[in-house]
Amino acid sequence: MANILIIEDEKKIARVLQLELEHEGYETDAAFTGTSGLEKFKEQNWDLVLLDVMLPELSGLEVLRRIRSTDTSTPVILLTARNSIPDKVSGLDLGANDYVTKPFEIEELLARVRSSLRTVQVKSEHSSVLTVKDWTVNEKTREVLRGEEQVDLTPKEFDLLVYFIENKGQALNREQILNRVWGFDYYGDTNIVDVYVRHLRKKLELSDVLLTVRGVGYRLKE
Ligand code: CA
Questions:
Q1: How many CB atoms lie within 10 A of CB 126?
Q2: How many A from CA of 17 to the centre of ligand 1?
Q3: How far is the CA of 88 from the centre of ligand 1 (A)?
Q4: What pLDDT band is residue 52 in, cutting at 50, 70 and 90?
Q5: Which fold, 129-220?
């Protein structure tokens, strides 16, 4: 079952959400400030985040912005005040998947949660097999194949390859790549990205499509 992070400073609302979601079979955890919410978000993988916009310390929109700087796929549903159109607009611009207006009917919220989780699942079923040049990259088995030929990649090489394929055509900077592939808490040298890109180019013969973007980082050609 999916696990859901609730970031909401009104403890009563957070508690009701937890009870209702757990009653539906979801696993939940709650954070009561923007800062602790962001920390909890980084600690593990979440299937969905319910994010209140009006939060102390770090606003919900700022939390969303920081989540989206490294994670573009975990669905985030915003909890917004009734008349706050600007929050809704900037929330969606910042990459929220949906919003629910407070005070909300729990049934409506549960429907939005189901719908967001479904969308992600359909997407991941479709995208479990990726391709680059004549290679097939299977995210489920983590195999990289060209016909019968199989190439062994280390876990990080594999993750890096998938990240490039998912962002085909986009220039990605080293910082972004590090955050996404090595995690938020990696403080090492960004040169590690260059080393891994060299490995990928060599192992998969990608030099003609995995391009260096001068002063930025790398781009996988479409
Ligand atoms: Ca609030």
A1: 8
A2: 14
A3: 15
A4: very high
A5: Arc Repressor Mutant, subunit A (1.10.10)
